[in-house]
Specification:
- The chain is flat and about 85 Å long.
- The chain has one domain (2-177).
- Helix 2 (55-76) packs parallel to helix 6 and helix 4 packs antiparallel against helix 6.
- It is mainly alpha-helical.
- 19% of the residues are buried.
- The protein has helices at residues 2-47, 55-76, 84-88, 92-126, 139-142, 144-165, 179-214.
- The chain contains seven helices and no strands.
- It is found in: Cell inner membrane.
- Residues 36-164 form the Tripartite ATP-independent periplasmic transporters DctQ component domain.
- Residues 198-219 are annotated as: Disordered.
Length: 219
């Protein structure tokens, strides 16, 4: 029963992580693409003395969107700034204690910032501020800020749960080691697969050679 509960919890954990990954990757990819497209189009438009009046507002919205969705993505992939020199010098037990303390403090800070950002957004909504060009409600530009902070806090909580449920040290819910270590691991797995394929091909070649030696061609 306990094993089944662990498997179901691990399955939900993975599904939750994939849903976050799908959402963040799509938002970041579309945001960067739209931002680059708007800037390039506006440059060409200014060349012909026809500036697009709403580009500045849309680029501001996209920058805010990319920044605060990127906060959650950075935490989930362990791409945030860390004091690696001190952390890597510790033994694994101390590393696990430190990563839990760091993630706990970071999660509290993220949730507090999310609360403050939500209060600021609510105030802007109450005051009915609008953007000067498109006349859109200004609070819609701010809505992603509390969401991004809250999502980052959730990722820190997931990191704490991950470190409490497994014996290894995890820097994030999806990242165990450094970026270079991840690349080396991927290369090692790739070469291991290539070696297995070569061994299988050699075995097949030897089997075919044995069969041909047992049944020589008739003259």
């Amino acid at each position: 029963m306990e094993a089944e509960n662990k498997m179901s919890f691990s399955f939900l954990f993975k599904v939750f992580g994939r849903a976050f990954d799908w959402f963040e990757v799509i938002v970041l990819s579309l945001g960067v693409f739209c931002l680059a497209t708007l800037v390039i189009v506006n440059v060409f438009a200014r060349t012909f003395f026809i500036s697009i009046y709403f580009v500045e507002e849309l680029t501001e919205l996209l920058v805010v969107l990319i920044t605060f969705v990127g906060v959650s993505y950075g935490v989930r992939k362990a791409r945030h700034i860390r004091m690696g020199a001190f952390f890597d010098a510790m033994n694994p037990k101390m590393q696990k204690v430190m990563i839990i303390i760091i993630c706990t403090i970071s999660a509290v800070v993220m949730f507090l910032l999310s609360s403050y950002a939500f209060s600021y957004m609510s105030t802007a909504r109450t005051m009915s501020h609008r953007t000067p060009a498109l006349r859109l409600p200004y609070w819609t530009f701010l809505a992603i800020i509390p969401l991004g902070f809250f999502s980052a806090g959730v990722q820190y909580v997931r990191t704490i749960i991950k470190n409490l449920s497994v014996p290894e040290v995890w820097l994030s819910p999806e990242q165990q080691g450094e970026y270079e270590a991840e690349e080396l691991q991927q290369l090692a797995e790739k070469f291991e697969d290539m070696a297995e394929e070569m061994v299988e091909e050699m075995k097949e070649h030897e089997e075919n050679a044995d069969k041909s030696s047992q049944h020589p061609p008739m003259a």
